[in-house]
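Narrative of activities, Objective 1.

The group set out to show that a structural description can be obtained from nothing but a protein's sequence at a throughput compatible with the screening campaign. Below is one input-output pair from the validation batch, recorded exactly as produced.
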Amino acid sequence: MSNLAARKRPTIHDVAAAAGVSRGTVSRVLNGKSNVSLSAETAVRRAVAETGYVVNRAARSLVTSRTGSIVMVLSEPQERLFEDPNFSVLMRVATNQLAERDMSLVLMIAGDDRGRDRVARYLRGGHADGALLVSTHAGDPLLDEIERSGIPAVACGAVLGRESVIPYAAADDRGGARAMTEYLVSLGRRKIGMITGPLDTPGGALRLEGFTGVLGRKAAKQLVVHGDYTQAAGEAAMRRLLAAVPDIDAVFVASDLMAAGALQALHEAGRRVPEDVAVGGFDDSVIASATRPALTTVRHPLARVAEETVRLLIELLDEHEVEPVVLPTELVVRDSA
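Output recorded for this entry:
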């Protein structure tokens, strides 16, 4: 009998007794509620460690209607997940931050109709407490499904057209683009082109606004080519710019990955960087220091944006009001411009 008692799993009653607090206080601490004194929270967490108590997620979900999981919805084709290093940063930071609250991250790809249907069914089934939206395009039909589901959602980067509906954390895309364009102008470059991202994303639209805001009428149509944030798109767009404007002497590329493609196209065309064509990117990802020459770029505070996105979602889950967060960018000068 004593052996059975010794092997008995500790309960929330045991934690409360060890901490000298009520079961309700223990429950509030374990559920991350803020209306608990620091001394009580410290006592509960010490008692949890001493007793070896493990939260029964199934039992908790019956009481709180919480699943303990968050779904990250990536609205891009699956191959982008492995090509673009920014997504791994977002996933790593979000996973670590949620783990601090004993929550799990589930990644779902919604790059096509089948993917969007799969995510919609998952959300309707109540399998997640909230959603982190990544690379969401304006007009995405999944947005209506998310709103109908009533699930709390926060976007990493504003969702164009729904900025007042879906909270977000973002970098100052427009300001970063302005800084890069002004820098290229300060170098004496006269024919400055741009390779944009998709214009139904904030990184595409707002970075283009920053570029044209500096150049005004000098930002002629033939100097602007659109891409999709892939290296292949950057390479193809640079070739189009060279064909349309042979005397182009600078290009601002809306992502480091596309800039790597642009550098390849310039190399193949026999153009020297930065002597003939200066190249600036955006992100300051691991790619920026790996290109030859090393890429002058705009530092996107991606890890901080990811942290703020998760923080906003947790605030929503705790039924608090939230406001959008926009973080500053920084110009990083290397060898390409």
